């Protein structure tokens, strides 16, 4: 089986996301591979999973398949995807699988910081109001009843996955971590530094203008950033 000579980006989406959430990145980067969660997108016919351990277990076969096709790879995730990617990395390290060159996370606090506000238990209407506050829902769609009916169960499962996650201090990862935040996200300098405790290698924190979904305001930046990975053998640099 012929392997991909470029660095593969194995990506995981935010709550409510699907393969199509990273469409521009996938179009510009043929090596950008999104691992689809069950219950949405190409896996719409499957049951939703609202437990993080079961979700990681469900995704591992596809991750291992992509690794088998790659010479080198990185793990990337935004928000929920950042947590999933982090846990996938730990699973790979435990199994002794060829490790990624680095973990890349955006819009996600360190795993040791739990989500304070729990909303998955709310009624659909109240839940949707909280989701809209976070951002990412176009104004024209915020009061769309069909959209709420379709996405509320998916989002609730994903938020439950995040809210019920219990951090367990584990062996630190032995590869670098790049972390990106939006300048409007609520995070302290002390909280940013907690990512440094998750790896024995360099952890680089970068800030970009925007709210929680700042990645969509900086798609060209991220396209160039991911392209740059194949041009830098050590991958230890502050790109911003």
Task: Outline the secondary-structure elements.
Layout: E1 8-12, H1 23-28, E2 32-34, H2 52-68, E3 73-78, H3 80-95, E4 103-106, H4 124-134, H5 145-163, E5 177-182, H6 189-193, E6 203-208, H7 219-229
Parallel strand pairs: 1-2, 1-3, 3-4, 4-5, 5-6
Helix pairs in contact: 4-5
Please state how the strands of the largest beta sheet are arranged side by side.
Answer: 2-1-3-4-5-6
Helix/strand-derived category reads: alpha/beta
Highest CATH level, the class of the domain at 8-113 and 169-229: Alpha Beta
Radius of gyration: 17 Å
The total strand number stands at 6
Helix content: 25-40%
Helix count, per DSSP? 7
Determine the N-to-C terminus distance.
Answer: 37 Å
Q: CATH superfamily membership of the domain at 8-113 and 169-229, which one?
A: Alpha/Beta hydrolase fold, catalytic domain
CATH architecture of the domain at 8-113 and 169-229: 3-Layer(aba) Sandwich
The global form is: globular
**CATH topology description of the domain at 8-113 and 169-229:** Rossmann fold
Question: What is the helix/strand order?
Answer: EHEHEHEHHEHEH
| Whole-number mean pLDDT | 90
Major sheet characteristics: 6 strands, parallel
Sequence stretches where pLDDT stays below 50 over 5 or more residues: 233-240
Task: Work out the strand percent.
Answer: 5-15%
Task: Walk me through the structure.
The chain is an alpha/beta fold and 240 residues long. It has helices spanning 23-28, 52-68, 80-95, 124-134, 145-163, 189-193, 219-229, and strands spanning 8-12, 32-34, 73-78, 103-106, 177-182, 203-208. A 6-stranded parallel beta sheet has the order 2-1-3-4-5-6. It starts with 7 loop residues before the first strand and ends in an 11-residue tail after the last helix.
